[in-house]
Amino acid sequence: MRGLYPKIMLLVGGVFAVALFFIGAIVYVSESQIEREGIVRAETLNRMAFEALYAAMRQGGGRDGNLNVIARMRGLGAFTRLRVVKGAPVVAQFGAQADELPEDAFEQRGLAGEVIQHIRWQDGYRIIRYVTPLRVQPECQRCHLAEIGAVNGIISTEISLQAYESALYPRRDFLIATTMASLVALGLLTFYALRQMILRPVQKIQHGATAIAQGNLAHRLTLQTGDELETLATEFNQMTRELQTSYAKLAEEQDKVLAAIESSRDGIWVSDVNKRVAMVNSALEKITGRARAEVLGQPCRFLLGVAPHAGEVDCDDACPFVHPYDSGRVEGKLLSTDGKEMWIDVSYGRVHDAQGNVTGVVHIVHDMTQRKEAEDLKDEFVSLVSHELRTPLHHIKGFATTLLQTDVNWDAATQRDFLESINRESDRLAMLVEKILHLSRLETGKLPMEKDWHAVDDLIAHALQRKNAIAPERRVATTSARALPPLFVDAREIEVVLANLLANADKYSPPHRDIALTVARQDREIIFCVADQGVGIAPEHLEQIFTRFYRVDTTARRAPGIGLGLAICKRIVEAHGGRIWVESKIGVGSQFFFSLPVQEK
Q1: Maximum C-alpha span of the chain
Q2: Alpha-carbon gap, residue 558 to 329, rounded angstroms
Q3: Helix (H, G, I), strand (E, B) or coil at 62
C-alpha cells in the first residue's frame, strides 16, 4: 500500500482493534483466574479438614477428638458445615449420636461410597459441598469388625467463598486501572508507530539536510518506507552525490594549489580582510622561525615586521590593504626568532570580491640573505683585494719610477735596496693571487690531493721552514707525542694549513711572545694545536672565523690580509676528512685545533 493517508487510517483502525481485543482478553483471563483460585482454595480447606479428622480418628480420639478438630477448623471462618457421619458397620458395633447420622441425600450417597463435590450459589457467592467417604484400612480391623475397603463413615463439609470472593473487589478495581493503563499504553504505542512511520523519516530527512548544510556531503538517507518519503530520500541522495562530485573536483584543485604552495621554496602566507594570518607554508616557518600554530590568526605585523633600508616599518607604509595601488613588492630586513637578521623580498597579490573590494592578500617571501651576503662578500672582496693589491703595486711603481729617473745617479747599494723592495712586494702580490686561486680551486673541487704517507715530524719541520721565511724572529715551541703514526695526506696542503695557522698566530701576537705548536693522538685522530698569547677572539666571532673574507679587528692597528688564510685551512682539513675549530679567551690568547684521521698503512 502506497501513500501516507491509507497507512495512517489502517494504523488507527488496527490500534483500536488491538485495544478491544486486549481489554476482552484481560477480563476473561481475570474471571477465569478468580474461579480457579476459589475452587483451589475450597479443595485445600476440604483436604485440610479431612486429613485432620482422619488423623484424630486414627489416634483414637473418639467423638471428643473429632469435635475438637471441628472446632478448630470452623475457626478459619470458611466452613458452614463440618461433621463426621458414621457408617452402618460402626453404628452397629459402637452406636451413634443423632448428630453422627446422615442428614441429607449427599451424605447418604457418600455412605454408599460416592465422592461428592457440589457447587451452589447463595446471595451471589459460591458455596461448595464436599462428601468424602472413610474406608476401612488394614490397620483399622483391630477396632472395627468390617471388611477392608468398606465405608464405615464420611466427612461432610460445606465451604462458603463469600469472604474470599468479597475480597476480589480490589482486583476488579485493579482490572479497571489496568484496562485504563492499557489504553494509555496503546495510545503511546500508536504515537510511537506514527513516529516510526512518519515523524522519524521526516526527521531523518531534516537531519540529512542539516548535515549537508554543514558540509558533510558523504551523508546519505536510508529510508525504506515504500511511499513518497522514500522517493524524496532517493532524490535527496542523488542531489547530494552530484554536490559531492562537484566539491570533490574543487577540493582536488584546491589540494593541488595547496600542495604547490606547501612545496614552494619561497615562503607564502595569506592574510584575510581583518589583516590576520589565515595560512602559511613550511618555507615561511623556516624563514621566520615561528611555528604555524603560533602565527595563525595573528596580525600580519606579528608574523613579518619588515623594515626597509631606511629603517621605517613597511607594515605601516606599504600595507596592501591601506595602499591598494602600490607596486606590490617590498624589500627589507627581517629579524627572526633566533635573533638573526635576514634580507627578504616580499611580493604580494590582492584578492578582490565581486565589488572590487580587497578581501585578502597573498604574500610571497623570498629569502635573499645568501644573495645579499654574496653581494656583501663581493663588495668586501673587491675592497680588500683592491687595497691589498694597491699597496704592493704602489711600492713597485714608486721604486721603479725612482730608479728610472735620469736626473739622479743612484749608487749600487741604493739600487739594490730598491730592487729588493720591488722583489718583496712582487712576492707579496704573487702570494695574494695564489691564495685567491688556491681557495677557488678548493671550493670548486678542482685541486687534486696528492696523498702519500708522511711522518708528522716532517710535516711540522717543513711548516716551520715556511714560517721562518716569513717571520724568522718569532719563536715556536713545539711539543709532539712519541710514536705518532704516519699520516696519509697531501703534505704540501697540510704544510699550508700549519703555515697559515702559524702566520696567523704571529700576526695577532704581541712581540717577543712565543707560539706553541703541540701534536697528540686522541683515539683515531691526530690533533694539531697552534696556540698564541694574543688578545683573543670575542665569542660572537668564533662561529664565522673560518668564513672567507671574514676578519676580526682585535687591535687598534688592523693586521694586513684579506681573510682567506683560515678559510683555506678549513677547506684543506675537511678535504682530508678532518675537522678544525678554535678556542679563545679575551686577554689570554687563542688555540686553533685541527684533526686528521689515522689510517691503516
Answers
A1: 199
A2: 41
A3: helix
Do 361 and 271 form a contact (C-beta atoms < 8 A)?
yes
Q: What confidence tens digit (pLDDT) does each residue in 166-195 have? A: 776 577 667 767 877 877 787 777 777 777
pLDDT of residue 382: 63
Give the span between the Cα atoms of 389 and 399, in whole angstroms.
Answer: 16
Which three-class secondary structure state does DSSP give residue 269?
strand
Average pLDDT over residues 69-73: 84
pLDDT band at residue 312 using 50, 70 and 90 as cut-offs: very low
> Between 257 and 569, where is the model more confident?
569
Q: At what angle do helices 565-575 and 412-444 cross, to 10 degrees?
A: 40
First to last CA, the chain: 99
Q: What is the DSSP letter of 40?
A: H
445's grid cell: 673541487
Query: What angle is formed at CA 109 by the lines to CA 104 and CA 110, rounded to 5 degrees?
Result: 100
Considering the entire predicted model, what is its pTM? 0.41
Q: Would you report the helix, strand and coil content of the chain in percent, each value rounded to 5?
A: 50, 20, 30
CA distances from 320 to 146, 300, 326, 349, 448 (A): 133, 11, 7, 8, 54
Bigger pLDDT: 143 vs 407 = 407
Q: Whose CA is closest to 592, among 563, 559, 566?
A: 566
Q: 182: closest CA among 350, 31, 16?
A: 16
Compute CA distances 133 → 100, 137, 171, whole Å.
14, 12, 37
Query: Residue 528: which of 509, 505, 550 has the closest Cα?
Result: 505
- Long-range contact set of residues 369-374: C-beta below 8 Å, sequence gap at least 24: 369/342, 369/343, 369/344, 371/343, 372/343
Residue listed under C-alpha cell 665569542: 539
DSSP string, 331-385: EEEEE-TTS-EEEEEEEEEEEE-TTS-EEEEEEEEEE-HHHHHHHHHHHHHHHHH
CA angle 463, 465, 466 (to 5 degrees): 65
Asked if 515 and 477 count as a contact pair (C-beta separation under 8 A), the reply is yes
Is residue 557 over pLDDT 50?
no
Question: What local confidence, expressed as pLDDT, does residue 444 receive?
Answer: 63
How would you class 591 by CB atoms within 10 Å of its CB: exposed for 0-12, middle for 13-18, buried for 19 or more? middle
pLDDT-derived band of residue 16, with 50, 70 and 90 as boundaries? Answer: low
Res. 593 pLDDT band, cuts 50 70 90: very high
Per DSSP, the three-state class of 193 is helix
DSSP-assigned states of every residue in 568-588: HHHHHHHHTT-EEEEEEETTT
